[in-house]
Amino acid sequence: MVNLTEAINEMIAEKNISKEMVEDTVREFVKAAYKRKFGTDENVIVNFIEDDGQINLEVSASRVVVEEENYYNEVTEIPLDEAKEMSEDAEVGDELVISLDPQTFDRSAVQSAKQRAQQSFKDIQNNYTYKEFKNKEGKVIQCYVNSITPSGDLILNVGNNTEGILPKKNISPLESYTVGEGLKCYLERVENAEKAEDLQKQGGFRGRKPKKDVRIILSRTSPELVRNFIEAQVPEIDNGQIEIVNIVREAGFRTKVAVRTFSDIDPIGATVGLRGIRIQTIMQEIDGEKIDVIKWEDNPLLLISNALTPARVNKVLVLNAETRQAVAIVDENQVGLAIGQKGVNVKLAKKLCDWLIEVKTQAEYDQMEISQEIRNQAEAIFEQGGDSLIENEVADEDRIYTKEELGIGEDENLLSDLPLSKELVLKLNRMDVYTAEEYFNMTDEEREGLGLTEDEVNEINSCVAVEEEYDDSFECPTCHQILPAGTLKCPHCMTEFVFE
User: Which long-range contacts (CB under 8 A, 24 or more apart) does 124-131 make?
Assistant: First the structure.
């Protein structure tokens, strides 16, 4: 017998696997080694004997007693004379159980079986990890920093000796962490080996081999992180008195939350809390990032006015109801607040309301009306045959801007330079998306907020796929994204490359 107490207990503790699973795997390991040596495992018997806290492995083989002249199979049969040496009462047809020493199996058999057992343990652990954390997907979990990669990604301990990754792009610009520090993260998604293989078959990896371990992807930039924090602080949401209708975020700058109530309570006051204590607690969780809580309105004009908080809006006018375009009129001293730092405030308002919003002073709007009147007059002339007067006129909203006008670097790719329809380019431009890099660096939630149809998404993806098919490319060794040849810095993980 072989004492496996220490080895089994160690695997139970380290791998977080039940004793029964460990024993089943060891049993398969021994049977595989036996089969490799003897060609069959039908007659091998593997038992675990527990005595006074000790776990011993007992391996034996059953053999049928046969006459010597009928002895043909030395693995499953034993001649009568040998059987009588082991048991005087042995007779032809009896079945003898003969003890074996697993250490006598040949080395190659043991090594092959050991590899199979190790893979089996890994598969069991991956399956357990996947199920456990798949149930936590979409929730906030407590993590601790295990290490920081050269590219700035955080490798986090998410519990049960399991690690997750917090990519650099999913870390707020306001935040920095050290090894051992605790933080709360939104569990964005959990991927297992089968999922990775499916994505590869669908072209999702484009030359990148899927990893076989479970991948736990975390985020500190998702708006859902803030949603979870609010739901934890505001019991009125849990009991159904308040609903978060929409939440949008530009991590490190601002979050906007639209709430409404189905009772007589004030949804903003309840969410913010007495003297702002609830919202202040949430802001501390995201390192002081500003949070605007606004009241949701079914009337889009009132909603847009609320969404541009902290600016005071005088009035909102609809420019085109069909394309959901509106202009917000503000005083001169409110323009900066309405637009926000780097345009973040108006950008978030657009996403929150799902309207294209322009911010204008009254004087700027009056000028717009004059321009529109001129355009209307020109169209009237065109209808009368004066097409030469307007044939070169291009409306500002239909204009394609250059890199210089947008302040975009030469290494970025304008959407207008890709083989996309003009209508799709303009639609993305109106949502402040001008380059392919901006589009593909967006989170899934941000892309969904663009309001693209499935055909439009496919048009963009197929366009990029064509570019990848014909251009040389390489895989980033850090984040495994496929990048065009000549890229000097990965736009996903910021790893820098040097080519010889």
Answer: 124/15, 124/17, 124/21, 124/25, 125/15, 125/16, 125/17, 126/192, 126/193, 126/212, 126/213, 126/214, 127/192, 128/16, 128/17, 129/160, 129/162, 129/214, 129/216, 130/190, 130/192, 130/214
The CA-CA-CA angle for residues 416, 432, 390, to 5°, reads 60
- In this structure, what DSSP letter does residue 86 have? H
Per-residue model confidence (pLDDT) at position 36: 81
How many beta carbons lie within 10 A of that of residue 198, not counting itself? Answer: 13
User: Measuring CA to CA, how many Å separate 215 from each of 357, 395, 492?
Assistant: 39, 48, 17
C-alpha count within 13 angstroms, C-beta hemisphere, residue 245 = 19
Q: Which CATH superfamily is domain 136-221 in?
A: Nucleic acid-binding proteins (2.40.50.140)
> What Å distances lie between residue 338 and 115, 348, 431, CA to CA?
63, 11, 16
First to last CA, the chain: 59
The domain spans of the chain are: 2-127, 136-221, 399-484
| Burial of 357 (C-beta count, 10 Å sphere; 0-12/13-18/19+) | buried
Are 238 and 228 a contacting pair, CB within 8 Å? no
Q: Locate tokens 């009132």: which residue?
A: 302
How far is the CA of 404 from the CAs of 385, 400, 410, in angstroms? 37, 12, 9
Distance CA(32)–CA(406), nearest Å, equals 65
pLDDT confidence of residue 204: 42
CATH class, domain 2-127, is: alpha beta
> CA-CA distance, 132 to 196, in Å (whole number)?
18
Please give the Cα distance from 297 to 353 (Å, whole number): 10
* Secondary structure element (H or E) that encloses residue 41, with its range: none
> What's phi and psi for 432, nearest 5 deg?
65, 30
pLDDT at residue 190, rounded to an integer: 92
What is the reported pLDDT for 47? 86
What is the Rg, in whole angstroms, of the alpha carbon atoms belonging to the chain? 34
Interstrand relation of 290-295 and 254-261 (parallel, antiparallel or unpaired): parallel
Number of C-beta neighbours around residue 76 at 10 A: 16
- Give me the residue label for tokens 């495994």: 480
Preceding amide of 150 cis, omega within 30: no
**pTM here?**
0.58
What is the rounded distance in angstroms from the CA atom of residue 351 to the CA atom of residue 296?
13
Three-state DSSP class for residue 357: strand
Mean pLDDT, the chain cut into blocks of 10 residues (500 residues total): 63 68 79 84 86 81 89 89 86 88 65 64 77 92 94 91 92 93 95 57 41 83 96 93 96 95 91 93 94 94 94 91 91 93 93 94 81 55 41 48 67 80 81 79 74 82 51 65 68 65
Q: What's the pLDDT score for residue 387?
A: 38
- Residue 15's SS3 state is helix
